[in-house]
Write a structure and sequence with these properties.
The chain is 68% helix and 0% strand. The chain is mainly α and 107 residues long. It has one domain. Helix 3 crosses helix 4. The longest helix is centred in the first third of the chain and has 21 residues.
């Protein structure tokens, strides 16, 4: 019966799977390093006290972020600031359609 080490060795023998595994492990390492970088301008002690006052909700937010929220790290923000503007950028061409007519009048 093959053991877990044999399974891992076999997984690294397949080039495509090895590439995906190494990428995943690399991203995990980068995330763990990023958790240690604090957000500038925020007092970590005061922020931790604020999260503790939220009770279970604060604990849930900290769990979801992998401990980054309570440590006030730059990775606690996640990708939300990059996802939120996406719908607006898709809708903005419709909002700027009259702009060429306005430019033509100004010239």
């Amino acid at each position: 019966m093959p053991g877990m080490t044999d399974t891992i060795k076999n997984a690294f023998r397949i080039p495509d799977l090895r590439k995906k595994l190494l990428f995943t492990f690399g991203m995990m390492v980068i995330y763990r390093i990023g958790i240690k970088i604090p957000v500038p301008g925020i007092d970590p002690v005061a922020f931790t006290a604020l999260i503790d006052r939220f009770g279970q909700l604060g604990a849930l937010l900290d769990i979801i972020s992998g401990g980054a929220f309570k440590q006030v790290s730059i990775f606690a923000m996640g990708i939300t600031p990059y996802i939120n503007p996406a719908p607006e950028s898709l809708l903005s061409p419709g909002c700027t359609a009259p702009a060429p007519r306005c430019r033509a009048r100004l010239q």
